[in-house]
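Quick one, T. Sequence first:
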Amino acid sequence: MHPADTPAKLAAVEALRERRVLVYQRPDGRYYVWPDARFCRCLYVGDEVRYQVYVRLGLEQKLERERETVAEEREATALFTSARDWGFGW
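Structure tokens:
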């Protein structure tokens, strides 16, 4: 994390596409940058290894959200079935 701790740095962060991963190729390797002028007022910068960790965490979060959605749907189905058994007429 690199804070935009001067007006010039903040202006540079604000000029970038907000909250999207940007890829920069340099002679010493590829770097991934996540500008966040709104919340942390910083740049997150990482190499290929750190980017792969970021991708893996994103996939894990997506899977967890999907698991929660399935669990909520099952719960709603059970409630609906139970409501019919109680004569609510849903």
